[in-house]
Design brief:
- By secondary structure, this protein is mainly alpha-helical.
- The chain has two domains: 3-81, no CATH class; 92-248.
- The chain has nine helices and no strands.
- Helix 4 crosses helix 7 (152-184) and helix 5 runs antiparallel to helix 9.
- The protein is globular and about 70 Å long.
Length: 262
């Protein structure tokens, strides 16, 4: 994407500034897609030739390189306008402190619990292929039999949507909580102490993702009662993670995200 086109998208008054910083990155389901610069670029990408969307094609990497180059150039221009020297070397102390913050974040109870949940979901999904195949056969049989008081098409859509939500959110929860806990270890200038905290925004997205995941796990439980023990373990972990996240970030729920909470 050319820099001029990118600038035109970003400067469009209908765009909601900063909305992409506090979302779940699921552009396909976002009602603000046409008012978000990232969403607009996603739409533009989908209009391109299939070669530009193929990770194995040179066209894809050329396009990606061009987007990065334009973005970095824009950031550099904005930094220079604000008196920031983007070419100045980063002090060694910065990397030492960063590693210390990253280590503290990885050891944080929310980070460890969200990582555990992510691993549990992957293991469950990997080991449940036969259960899904069995359920698909059952639904197909119900369709062919035309049984009364049965709606196999609705059941199939519910299961698919639940799985989509679980898969999308199981990594997002950990990523957003890691971002949140990393930021609480950073020194904050006194001038910013009374302003809304970015880590609360990240924690809020994690909490919303936890809420959505709990809801769809309950849906799957109704369709797979034989998997009750496994599903209840994940529900229990998610509920505990949600409570702990609210304890660690008491202002997260009230954080106002641009667009979404206005």
């Amino acid at each position: 994407m050319k820099k001029t086109k990118l600038m035109k998208i970003v400067s469009d008054p209908k765009m909601i500034s900063g909305i992409h910083n506090y979302c779940d990155k699921w552009c396909e389901r976002c009602r603000f897609k046409t008012r978000c610069a990232v969403g607009i670029m996603d739409l533009e990408d989908k209009k391109q030739d299939s070669k530009e969307l193929d990770l194995n094609s040179p066209e894809f990497w050329d396009k990606l390189h061009g987007i990065f180059a334009d973005t970095f150039e824009m950031i550099g221009e904005m930094a220079r306008k604000n008196g920031v020297d983007v070419d100045a070397p980063i002090p060694e102390e910065y990397w030492i402190q960063k590693e210390k913050r990253d280590k503290n974040a990885r050891e944080h109870v929310c980070a460890k619990a969200s990582w555990k949940y992510m691993e549990m979901v992957r293991k469950w999904m990997d080991g449940s292929s036969k259960d899904f195949e069995k359920k698909a056969d059952e639904l197909m049989k119900n369709i062919s039999m035309g049984l009364p008081n049965k709606n196999p098409e609705k059941d199939a859509l519910e299961i698919k949507d639940a799985v989509d939500v679980i898969i999308w959110n199981h990594t997002l929860i950990h990523v957003k909580l890691m971002r949140a806990v990393q930021q609480i270890f950073e020194d904050e200038p006194e001038i910013l102490e009374d302003l809304p905290k970015d880590y609360d925004g990240s924690a809020k997205i994690a909490l919303i993702s936890i809420d959505n995941s709990i809801k769809v796990w309950e849906t799957l439980l109704s369709h797979f009662p034989e998997k009750e023990d496994e599903i209840l373990k994940m529900l229990s972990l998610l509920q505990k993670l949600g409570r702990r996240t609210e304890l660690e970030f008491p202002n997260a729920r009230s954080f106002k995200r641009p667009g979404f909470d206005e």
